[in-house]
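Our collaborator T.R. sent over the components below with a one-line note: 'Predict the complex.' Nothing else. No constraints on interfaces, no templates requested, no preferences about which chain binds where. So this is a plain run: every listed entity goes in together, and whatever single assembly comes back becomes the starting point for the next discussion.
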Amino acid sequence: MLRTILSTVSAFSLSIFSLNTFAEDPPPWKQGITAENEKSPLHPFAPNLTGVDDVPVSSLKVPAGFKVELWASVPNARSMTLGDHGTVFVSNRVGRNVYAVVEKNSAREVKTIAKGLTNPNGIALIDGNLFIAERDKIIKLDNIEANLDNPPTSQLVVDGLDPTNGPGHFWKYLVAGPDKKLYFNIGSPQNITLPNYAQAVIMRLDPKTGQMERLATGVRNSVGMDFHPVTKKLWFTEHGRDWLGEDSPNDELNTLTQNGENFGFPFCHQGDIQDPIYGKYGKCSDSTPPALKLGAHVAPLGIRFYTGNMFPAEYKNNLFIARHGSWNRTSKQGYDVMRVVLDKNGKVVKYEPFLTGFLTDDKADPPMWGRPVDVLQLLDGSLLVSDDHTGNIYRISYSKKL
Amino acid sequence: MSLFIRQFAIAVFATPLLFGFQTLSIAADVAAGKAKAEQCSACHGPNGNSVNPEIPALAGQPALMISNMLFYYREGIRKNEIMRAMAANLSNKEMKDVAAFYSTQMRENASYQSKVENVQKGALLTEKYNCTQCHGPQLQGVQHIPRIAGQQPGYLLTQLKGFKAMTREDMDGNMTSALSMVKYEEIEPIADYLAGLKTP
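Returned assembly:
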């Protein structure tokens, strides 16, 4: 109890200082831990940065009529974005490079187009210019698709995006809006804490002027965003806090309806759970509940609305969600790509597995052989899924069997 | 379980279970890794049993930790002039081979004696600061998380100070996070205690 009060008081009064100031506070990952979990051996997993040969693609499962195959290998493959001419750009979280994958006579070639970056997790294209969100800044490479073999020197768009230089949630997701502005997250620096002005937010940046605004607050960490093809609304995934239980709280799928909207963190989780520490300072009714509860600790990452013509018609405007999978849970779940079906009003009517088979044993350590990170629709309507654990990208295609 | 049996189990039993598709290449990997690792032994000692307090022992470390750290050095993520040069020309395959070799070696000749005053203190601190949660109850390493029991004291000290100063590269920030609560004067007793731990 005393510890709770102390950490609450210190977070409120002193959170503008660096983490190092508070030797008696728990480390960021342990904040809010319960007594029974005090000695929990649960730990995050590390990717195979040197890659995994011979991944068991045949163990992956997709619905009838669909086919999944290994498409390309890229170290620690994370976010993906598509050029107008079909080039697939792939980012890194733990590495330092950004890659371009080009198709040549049905073979793929992987080119390194940017090197020496710092956690370059976010990538997005606007008018042929590639924007890269690093840990602390956003840079751009102009007219990239025409210069893959001789990429231009990067230009700084905005910096100062790593307010604490601290250990938690420092990587960024980046997406281009229909308004040709950039949308990205700045995560909560810790598991559960009162965020500062530019933490636990989704920001919008006008790359022409460099002006930024806080578009959404109370978002613990979002590592996946996309715009609905019809309503043009921003949809995004959000990771719930740790140590609130095996089945609590749910990770979230959210929609933004107005600028400056609040999504609850750290006061409220999944729209209806008051936080044990911070819940007394803010009501769930003051924030927007999720459009869909995604499951506890499933770690939803990249999302993408399907607008192609290859998949059956009922897949049109469906949302695919890559779930990286849990660590903060005894019995592991996630490690798949889910399909979300929406009705005409944008309301969720179905949430079901689409790509499974990465999870091998939910009690094992590690429980999986691969971890989906992002989804991307190719020009032909097939779907790519990146896997940062083995450094591979898979392609899912559909053909109607006669 | 003795370390030998554990390593045997990892190399021969657990690996094929989890990654059955790699089974056939395991033996070749270790042999190729042993040959490649000859250039490492000048500093890291015979079979990865370093006798230099500043240079880490690699014997019995998790393979994924070794291959990932070699990747870090080659790509310039973790900074060290000598290691960057050593890793510069290694392919991913060679890194995995070297990792497979060292992970199957016995940690030997870990003769360091902790200071008497740090034995109990260090045990309490490693409990208090959650070391035993991720590095394993006996600090022997888990999956990709290094074995720190019996590691060289000077090396441990340098790494811990680096994490404390937020200058040591750290995948998800877990160690930087862990060290954020450790007092600076507690780092030396922790390193001294860990270095003196023997293989159970």
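Summary for T.R.: Chain A touches chain B at residues 19-20, 22-30, 39-41, 43-56, 75, 94-97, 116, 165-168, 170, 360, 364-366, 369 (CB under 8 Å).
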